[in-house]
Amino acid sequence: MATAGTTPDFLDKRLLQDDVPEIVANILDAQTKSELLGRVLKLSPSRVSAIHMQYKDPEECLFRVIDEFVKQVDPIPTWRVITTALRHPTIRLTGLADEIESKHCPPTIC
Q: Is the pTM of this model over 0.90?
């Protein structure tokens, strides 16, 4: 894990204080859409269950879970990391990344 002096731009000191970097690393390490979904679903089992009951479509469920995750931690670095992961060539969920970005990217950046 990076130290505070070598923190990438999209991670800040607050994220390094808890397990978020590990979660983000796991998301970025996913090789397929289903693997990404599986890793994101591990974030908050009770909340995911509630979301899954409401949205049966896996991609819609994935978006809602990521949306909940983004709300729980510092939004600027988190949405950037997650949208980068979703745009990865092996995952290619660009539409989902665009939707998350449009909802969470501050007007001063986007």
A: no
Q: Is the separation of the CB atoms in 75 and 62 below 8 Å?
A: no
* Domain positions in the chain: 19-104
d(CA 40, CA 34): 10
- 5: confidence class by pLDDT, cuts 50, 70, 90: very low
Q: What 3-state class would DSSP assign to 9? A: coil
Pick from 21, 22, 27: nearest CA to 7: 21
Three-state SS string across 23-37, please? HHHHHHHCCCHHHHH
Helices 75-86 and 58-72 pack at an angle, to 10 degrees, of: 150
- Tokens 């204080």 sit at which residue? 17
Token duo for residue 75: 């939004």
Pure H helices in 32-108: 33-41, 45-54, 58-72, 75-86, 94-104
Q: What percent of the chain has pLDDT over 70?
A: 42
Tell me what pLDDT residue 74 has.
Answer: 59
